[in-house]
Write a structure and sequence with these properties.
homodimer, about 240 residues, alpha+beta, six-stranded antiparallel sheet, two-stranded antiparallel sheet, 10 helices, 8 strands, about 50% helix, elongated, DNA-binding
Chain lengths: ~240, ~240
DNA sequence: CTATAAATATGACATTTATCATATGAAAAT
DNA sequence: ATTTTCATATGATAAATGTCATATTTATAG
């Protein structure tokens, strides 16, 4: 009885979690969710702190319950190249877990985060016994791959200006805006530069230009998109 | 008896195939290899011809038995950005098959190719019934993802000169050289430019520079790496 | 074999972007 | 409150790269 109650409680906890609703984990059945709830651990990560660093062996995946994180890699010249931003509902560290390799990227919090850690053994177990789960997981990696390939093309074929416009639109679409219309993800100019792959000064300069052209408005360090249509046009053509 | 003989023959054909030895297909058991051999179709693709074009629904995967292919995407400005080269032993079209999406990239032969087509139904069947196969497939997509992410970083953080040096080394390492020491993959300058993401003229100019510096030698349209050490140095630092 | 087209090569120049210097404003530390 | 530090901002300049023009060579078609 005590066990039953505990399990029910645990199950509900994971069952209602946003990650369970949005990620590959949606394929898990009740029994599996209970196992999950019993094996997971929850962690709070403060803004700026790392969930894991590149080169670390993670031995499991992280579910993002709340907050925003960045996946990035440090280059030889000391710059931090952001590969991807993650928000609540997403899984982290799947790739290196499956490849049996240390993390290729670092994961750090951009806004305070709450994440759950699921040990590798659980995931492998689900993977082997639940075809829908393995298919979902596979599809999510495939989605990442497609996005990465498209990013690669954009990096090569678009100018810094176009990439900045594109990235601002993307941030707006994916993370939304605050009540004062400013973008919800608050990146420093340096981080934004790291995302589009340019020098911090170039990024700042272009933001100034966009501001003068009234495409965006700079409210202190925050950014408001004022003319989405024109930004889209800028992101597309020259 | 007739059936048995036919199956044995078919199994052997796929069983000894290089793709079977190198790709996710190595996890298949005898019975599965027989099924595979009976459902696959073999195709010859001439240099320059397409295996599939971006936007097409492929409904299966292609095994590269022989030859070299390129995965590329046409950009709005008409340039063909090469994402990846494939050689014998590799699978093609896994991503779009699993994502249930039309191909994101085009696959074309750079050297005459021989490929086998395996229908989606077979692959899904293997995926659902053979855990090792699904894990292998997953790992191969993960490997592609890691490579793509690293490429992304290189594109942003390295100069065109560095990327050219890196790409030449990579082509040498992955595809080897002919008896006259020239690189085995023979790309046009335009294709090479497409790989490193630069203008054709810039690529030609840098090849000339490398030639003058005796890092490489240009034998007509072919390329010989003369100073691998110096090329490596160039690819790394500035 | 010649004519035509395509790929390679190179110069001249324009544009984009990075780098360095320096200023200003905002946040953090003492 | 003041100093120190850090992010943002902007100008001046250099370096990298793209674009256009135009040979030259090589491949292809007739």
């Amino acid at each position: 009885m005590v066990n039953f109650a505990a399990n029910t409680f645990a199950m509900n906890k994971c069952d209602q979690c946003i990650v369970r609703q949005l990620s590959s984990l949606k394929a898990l059945n009740k029994e599996e969710v209970i196992k999950l709830a019993n094996s997971k651990t929850t962690h709070k990560i403060k803004k700026g702190e790392a969930i894991f660093e590149e080169g670390e062996v993670t031995n499991g995946v992280f579910c993002v319950k709340d907050g925003i994180g960045k996946l990035s890699k440090l280059s030889s010249n000391g710059k931090d190249q952001i590969i991807k931003l993650v928000k609540s509902g997403e899984l982290l560290g799947q790739r290196s877990m499956i490849s049996n390799e240390p993390a290729n990227l670092s994961a750090k919090a951009i806004a305070d985060m709450e994440v759950c850690f699921i040990p590798k053994s659980e995931i492998i177990n689900f993977f082997n016994n639940n075809n829908q789960f393995s298919l979902n997981l596979m599809q999510s990696v495939c989605e990442d791959l497609k996005e990465s390939e498209n990013d690669k093309i954009a990096l090569v074929q678009k100018t810094v200006k176009q990439r900045l416009a594109e990235t601002l639109l993307h941030l707006h679409e994916e993370f939304g805006e605050n009540t004062d219309k400013t973008l919800k993800v608050q990146l420093t100019r340096e981080e934004l530069a790291g995302m589009i792959g340019t020098a911090t000064e170039s990024c700042i300069r272009l933001l100034s230009d966009f501001n003068k052209l009234e495409l965006i408005e700079l409210v202190g360090k925050k950014i408001v998109l004022k003319n989405v249509k024109a930004l889209k046009k800028m992101a597309e053509q020259l």
